[in-house]
Design a protein that fits this description.
This protein is 5% helix and 39% strand. By secondary structure, the protein is mainly β. The strands form 6 sheets. Strands 1, 2, 3, 4, 5, 6, 7, 8 and 9 form a 9-stranded mixed β-sheet that branches. Strands 11, 13, 14, 15, 16, 17 and 19 form a 7-stranded antiparallel β-sheet that branches. Strands 24-25-28-27-26-29 form a 6-stranded antiparallel β-sheet, with no helix packed on it.
């Protein structure tokens, strides 16, 4: 062979070997939630190692990338790097319409060819994933619809399991599935009572039912709008709420639950009509995450001096009296507290 052609031949041989080594043999499970969070295990060979050295950290094509592809849609599957190695990739699905999806894998930017996916039958059942309603947990109702942070909320829906944690083998209806976690907004919603193994409420309607109730206690102090979600293991995933559970706020936000602050007292109880009184509002959950708090006294802004979780101090404005106002000196002035909703 011409010496000038040897490097090219060697490179071609290496590419062929790499392509041949990269194979997808099997996908598990084959069914999952329409709303995502189903954990997929992709078995094969030649995948990128989780801890392999990366020359360019900004390279988006580095490592393993998984895409679920239907006839009309292509959706990424989020790879869990810590559980991935040369013969296995773990990834979590995203919300996808109900349907049939085939698995596509790229290793360091190079797609695994169709001929190396399920022995060339890349649309076979062994390398397919189906999003189906009967593997999608649901939320049909939620009560209450509002409350202070830390509220205990209860949902009813197709929950499939009355097991949380790993101390029970199977659910009372015989399904090998359990609750993993629950969230209200971005914060965990706790299924267990504090410093206890006792659940607030997790039960199925009957021993043969997929329907039931779950209660959890909110965490965090955020005042605003929240959406409740929970995740099951096995071939299930994230819950899907009924659309009629969403409400539209005055700011145009869609949410299932609204938290609010609590006012427990105001001091002093009286002050000058010419303003300048330093007023203290006592309560809980005076949260300013989204925007500053606002206090009105008798319809007039009270100049905010300080805000903490349990106290707001402000200085009252001068109360101008007009003959047509219907307000007279010495009359009680209502207080209004506005927090971002």
């Amino acid at each position: 062979m011409d010496p000038a052609l040897k490097p090219a031949a060697l490179l071609l041989a290496l590419c062929c070997c790499c392509c041949a080594a990269q194979r997808v043999n099997y996908v598990s499970p084959h069914r999952g939630s329409i709303n995502g969070a189903t954990r997929l295990t992709i078995s094969g060979n030649g995948f990128a190692q989780e801890r392999q050295f990366q020359l360019n950290p900004a390279d988006d094509t580095f490592g393993n990338q998984v895409t679920l592809v239907s006839d009309t849609l292509s959706v990424p599957c989020d790879v869990e790097r810590d559980s991935t190695h040369g013969s296995q990739i773990l990834c979590y699905t995203r919300p996808m319409p109900s349907g049939h999806y085939v698995v596509r894998v790229s290793v360091d930017g190079v797609p695994v060819p169709d001929s190396n996916i399920c022995h060339g039958v890349y649309k076979s059942y062994h390398c397919s994933f189906y999003t189906v309603w009967y593997r999608t947990p649901t939320i049909k109702s939620l009560s209450p619809a509002s409350g202070p942070p830390g509220s205990l909320v209860t949902l009813h829906g197709r929950i499939y399991s009355d097991v949380y944690g790993s101390n029970t083998a199977v659910s009372s209806n015989g399904l090998n599935v359990r609750f993993l976690r629950s969230y209200m907004g971005a914060m965990p919603c706790q299924l267990l009572k504090p410093e206890s193994d006792e659940l607030y409420n997790l039960r199925l309607t009957s021993e043969t039912s997929h329907w039931g109730d779950m209660s959890c206690k909110m965490t965090g102090t955020y005042v605003g709008h929240h959406n409740l979600t929970y995740i099951l293991d096995s071939d299930f995933g994230r819950s899907l709420p009924e659309k009629n559970l969403y409400r539209v706020s005055a700011l145009g936000k869609l949410s299932m639950f609204q938290t609010f602050a609590e006012v427990t007292g105001v001091s002093p109880s009286n002050g000058s009509v010419v303003g300048g009184t330093l007023l203290t509002v006592h309560g809980r959950f005076f949260d300013q995450t989204d925007r500053p708090a606002r206090v009105l006294v008798g319809g007039l802004p009270c100049d905010i001096q300080s805000v903490s979780d349990a106290r707001i101090t402000c200085r009252t404005a001068e109360r101008r009296i007009s003959n047509d106002s219907g307000v007279y000196p010495g009359e009680n002035a209502p207080l209004s507290l506005y927090l971002p909703i």
